[in-house]
Design goal:
With 161 residues, the chain is α/β, with parallel strands linked by helices. The protein contains six helices and five strands, in the order βαβααβαβααβ. The protein has helices spanning 13-29, 41-44, 51-79, 96-107, 121-127, 130-137, and strands spanning 4-8, 32-39, 84-90, 111-115, 142-145. Helix 4 (96-107) crosses helix 6 (130-137). The radius of gyration is 18 Å and the shape is globular. 25% of the residues are buried.
Length: 161
């Protein structure tokens, strides 16, 4: 059913949780997993660096760090017997959602598994939601994964705090 699973991955706790879900599905279905990371130059720009220095120093360091992160996650999958690969893209002034959708189409993904913060209200309005945009525009099913809710510190009946 889901022979190819695309997992946008940034190393955050929510993307780690999405990776766990994708791994479980891949094991059950014998699916391939592609880990996708998109480098956004604005997240690495400090504003005081000349463009040529950014290109020669900052961007290569960001790419190397992202590749190391992806390789580590990919190694975790292959250690479980899952066929996995990585894809690293540089965002050249585009929104993330269309890049993820394009990657899913080009690779032939049958499912996108994506971590989400689950923001609501003003936080979602001002920050936007890549996960929501991907879910709305994806040509394939999207599984949105949130971190598990934290358990209450003391759940025994009659216990006092």
């Amino acid at each position: 059913m889901y022979e190819k699973i695309l997992v946008p991955f940034d190393g955050s706790p929510t993307s780690e949780q999405a990776l766990k879900e994708a791994a479980g599905l891949a094991l059950k279905m014998g699916a391939q997993v592609r880990l996708l990371h998109i480098i956004d130059p604005l997240t690495h720009a400090v504003g005081f660096v000349r463009p040529e220095v950014y290109q020669s120093d900052f961007l290569p360091a960001a790419m190397k760090g992202a590749e190391t992160m992806l390789r580590k996650a990919c190694d975790q999958l292959t250690a479980q017997g899952i066929q996995a690969e990585i894809r690293l893209l540089e965002n050249l002034d585009a929104q993330v959602a269309p890049l993820v959708i394009d990657e899913a189409r080009q690779w032939g993904a049958r499912l996108i598994v994506l971590g989400t913060q689950g923001r609501r209200g003003l936080a979602r309005m001002f920050l936007g939601s890549d996960a929501e945009q991907i879910a709305r525009t994806s040509p394939v099913p999207v599984l949105l994964v949130r971190l598990p809710a934290a358990a209450p510190a003391n759940t025994q009946p009659g216990a006092s705090a």
